[in-house]
Structure formats: C-alpha cells, structure tokens
Amino acid sequence: MKRVYIKEEVCMGCGLCEVYCQLQHSLSKDLVKAFNRETPKALPRAKVERNGPVSLSLRCQQCTDTPCVFACLTGALSRDTITGIVNVDEEKCVGCGTCTLACPFGAIKQDNLRGKAVKCDLCQDEEIPVCVANCPNEALILVEIEEETLHSKAAMISIK
Amino acid sequence: MMKDKLTVKYLIIGNSAGGIGAAEAIREIDKNGSIAMISEEPYPAYSRPLISEYLAKERPLEKISFRPADFYKINNIQLISGNKIETLDAKEHTAVLADESTIAWEKLLLATGGMPIVPPTPGIDKKGVFNFITLNDAKAIDKFLHDADRVVVIGGGLIGVSVTEALIKRNARVTVVEMKDRLLSLILDEEVSAMAEKKLQQAGVEILTSHTVAKISSTSLVRDTVSSVVMDDGRIILCDAVVVAIGVRPRIEMARNSGISTNRGIVIDRQMATSHPDIYACGDAAESYDFINGDYRLSPIWPNAYIGGRIAGLNMTGVRTEYQGGASMNSLNYFGLRIASAGIINPPDNSYEVLSESKDGNYRKVIIKDGIIVGMVLTGNTDNAGIYINLMRNKINVEELKQILVSDDFGLASLPEELWLPQLSLPSSAEKYSVILAKEIEEILAAE
Q1: How many interchain CB pairs under 8 A, A with B?
Q2: What is the tens place of the pLDDT at every residue in B229-266?
C-alpha cells in the first residue's frame, strides 16, 4: 500500500503540491485553464499549512480507523480493502460535511460549487502522486507499507 | 400450523445506522456467527437524511440506500424486513415477531431508533398531515403534493429546515412555525440562527417564531382533509398540507416491557450494554456517553448511532471495548449556508469564555470552559471543523492558543507539533516500509 508522509523540517511552504494537485484533478490538465478558465475550478486535495517558520503539506492519511467513513451519512465514503485508500463515491455524496467534521486533521474539503467532499486519492492514474513528484525539496515522501504494519490512526495524540 | 422458530447468535432489532454499524463490526471479528436483522420498514437500510433529497426529486429511490444491494448477502446477514418484534423475553433469550414466529438469540442489540413526536393538536390526524422521519413519510408527502401547494411546517429544528428545503425545491410555499424565538435554537447561537433565517426568508419561506399551531382545521365540505391551521394568537393560515417536524422520541417500549432499565432512553454503559448482560442498545433509542458533558444522554445523531452500533457489535462478539463518547455535532448545508456546530453552543452561565470572529462571510465561534473547548460553531468554510472537534474530544488545553483559535488561518500548524506531527511524518522505525524515490521511478520510466 502506498502512503505519503511529510518531512516538515524541509518544507518551504511554496505551495507547488497544491498547484500540481489542482492540475491533476482538473478537467483540462492544462495549467492556465485549470486555474483561470475551468468552472467549477478543481480543488487541490493537498493543503499547505503555514504558521511563521513552520509549514507543511497536509493531505488525507487514509487512516485505518476511518472516522470519516463511520461518520458518513450516505455511505459515500468507504475504504478500499486492497489499496487501503478511502474513497468518495461522488454519486452518493451530498456534500453534507459530516466527514469534514469527523477528520481530526481537516484533510477533507467541501467543494461547495459541486456539492461534494474531496480528498486525496493518491493519484491512482500516476506512478507516483504528483505532489511528491513535484516537491522541489523532497518534503513529501512516498512509501510502500505493509497493511499489517500500518498504524495510521486518526486520533490525535492525547496530552494529559 | 407449526410456528417458525429461528435460532441465531446475534439478533439486531433495527436496520438503520446503529444496526448496520453493529452488523459490520460483528463481521470484522466473527465471520461465521449467524446474524439476523429485523427491519420494521420494508426496505434495505437507507440513509435517513437522504429522504429530503428523495422528496426534492433530486435522488431516486435506488440511490438512497446506505449500503450496496448485496450488502446482506455478502455479509451473510438474514434481513427480516417489514416485520417487528412483539415481545422480547430477556431471560429466555427469545423474541416473538408480529407473525408469531420465534427467534432464539444469544446476543441482542436494540437499535430501535426513535418515533416522531406528534403533539396532541386537534386535527392532527386529518388527511394532509405528515411526519418526516421515514422514507414512507417522504413518499406520502411526494404523492400528496401538488405544484405551488401551501405547506405549514411545524418545527424549526433540523428536521423542519430539511423538509422545508425539499418543499421549496418542489415549488411549495412554506410557512415554518417554531415555538422558540429562533430557528435551530438547540444547535446554533443567536447569530447563526439569524443567518439561517435570513437565507430561508430570501428563498421565500415565511418564518413564525415564538408561536405554535393551536388547531388544524378543514372545511365543512371536505372534513377529513386539512385546509388551514389556526395559530395560538388566533391567526388563520390557509394551507394544503402540514408537516410535523418537531423531533423524535426514543422507542423504548420493548425494552421497558422486558424489564430492561430505561430512563428517557434505554440505559447503557460505556460498552453499550443494558442492564441485561446479553442485551445492548445504541442510537436514538439509547442514552449514550457524552464526552462534553461527561454524562449519559440522548444523542440522535447519525454518526453517533453508527459508531455506538459498532462498539455494541464488538462487545457482542466478546471484544471488550469502550465507546469513546459522542456529542451533539452537526454539519448542515441548507439554503446555501454551510454550518458546522458541536457541543455547548449557548453557554448556560457566565463561567464560559466565548471567542468569535466573522470575516469574509465565514463566522467562527468557540466556547471555552476551564481552558477546554466545549462548543463550536462555524459557517461558510468549515474545512477545519474536525480540528476543533478533536481538541474538544481530547480535552486539549487551549489557553495558549486563544489568540488564534478563531482566526481565519487557524489550522493544524497553529497547534503544538506533538498533537499532529507524528501522524503525518514517516512512521517510527518499528513500522516496516520502504521509501519510493522519485528519481528511481523516473529512471525506470525513462528506460522503458
């Protein structure tokens, strides 16, 4: 199973991950059209978070304990047993936002123009996700991980 | 005639969020133990919130099912639909159905849900008066409604707003009657209630707050069909239909009759177990653990029902696990206004600290008690709502973060790194993984 992790200390916050993610999910796959012409504009599934010197590229971690899937009102969200990827069935999704409410990282966006939830799909049509491929400073790492050693848990670490 | 007798390991009464959650959890652990699910409604499990899309004619019947058509078959679940349990014998571990057949069970889940609250208003049983809880309610309204009909919706909460949006899409003329002084008062603060009311009014909805319907009337010619309502102040509103959208109350009669402990709902513990060790309960029918208030209370929220069902199911298989707790949490998108709210929105006294900010059409409010977030409401861009929920769930102290909590660039990076960085960074060395280098892929592709 493939996963993308961050190396926060070398992230510059340049935002190229967002740019290429939006391009990848656009209709035209053309930069100018994807950003300036298409309606509705595709949303990037990655989000650069910035706070002073800290920046990171956030995306869905395909958590094994799937709080979003459990929260989904329509059954639109499900976890693929083979790839481990959490998918949005856009036919079923009504854009209610309950999954967004359930994600502790804020990794699921609501596309208000289309009325659908959008999240990282690990670029199934590409050899490697376009954010990883285009990061100029190797702040995004693609790994191959065994299912049974996967411990992506959605719960934030609890500080007592 | 010999009456049918069925023996199962797991009997689940109810086929909605809680029942499905339990069935899925059971099958994760126990692939072979027999499961029967009893559904009063004659349908495979469907998404209750989607009945408004059905009524609005935006989604056909086939598209509101909660799971794929082969869900029961694939999971080896016997679905007994269009039937109900008449008597439950907790001691004997049996249940008798309406058709007099018997089911013997080892573990039982009461996922019986809620029934619509129907006020004792005179005329409430006239033709043209509907509930809005089940798919059959939506179908009945759909069949009855004509274009441009006037409809009075009694109740300005979530159900009322949901059915109102569907009716507006059907070109009905709607008047919402709400007893309290504002819409959605249970889950919103005054500011966001006002935003919601404005959106409804812009869509042509008439809103009457601080009023009730005193009587539902008909003309002398067609005495059994609604033609108007009389308000508490004597005002008469002509209408073609009435939708009662006040809320639900827990279905606990079966539990009570079989000796299981009940309060307003079925009493359960953190393992979702009732006062009987082999009987569990979840969803709208049960009083489940609330992590905001630290008590047990009714929580008729779809995700809480599903997750509670999961926990019940796991415990039914013998996996001892605890329900982490739910809270009042809602995400809604009606009349073009997106809202996310959770916890205590309207503080009961001055011991709570309220932070709020409104910018670029996005409203953010956070309610803090003793340094911990106990409530929040966001409108507009609600993409980071889950971050607040997790701070609430884990009772993270936010004293140092108050400056940025409701700012428009609040996000993960605003929080101490130890709360999120490990989850997003390369796993610890205990995990087995191999890094795929972009350069290697390029070389492979170039060589081909």
Answers
A1: 187
A2: 999 999 999 999 999 999 999 999 999 999 999 999 99
Q: How many CA atoms lie within 13 A of B16 on its CB side?
A: 26
Per CB-CB distance under 8 Å, the chain B contacts of A71 are 302-303, 306-307
Q: CB neighbours of B267 closer than 8 A, spacing ≥ 6?
A: B260, B261, B274, B275, B286, B287, B296
Could you report the per-residue pLDDT of A52-71, keeping only the tens digit for each? 999 999 999 999 999 999 99
Write down all domains in chain B, each with its CATH number in brackets.
5-114+249-316 (3.50.50.60), 129-246 (3.50.50.60), 344-424 (3.30.390)
Do residues A147 and A84 make contact, with C-beta atoms less than 8 angstroms apart?
yes
Q: Which amino acid belongs to residue A44?
A: P
* CATH topology match: A1-59+125-144 vs A61-119: yes
Judged by CB atoms closer than 8 Å, whether chains meet at A132 and B419 is answered as no
Q: Find where tokens 């509103």 sit.
A: B237
On whether the A1-59+125-144 domain is CATH 3.30.70, my answer is yes
- Residue B423: list chain A partners with CB under 8 A: 61, 105, 152-154, 156-157
CATH-assigned architecture of domain A61-119:
2-Layer Sandwich (3.30)
- Global model pTM greater than 0.90: yes
Q: Do the strands B77-81 and B35-39 form a parallel or antiparallel pair, or are they unpaired?
A: parallel
CA proximity to B304, closest of B332, B269, B329: B329
Query: What are the structure tokens assigned to A99, written together?
Result: 């999954």
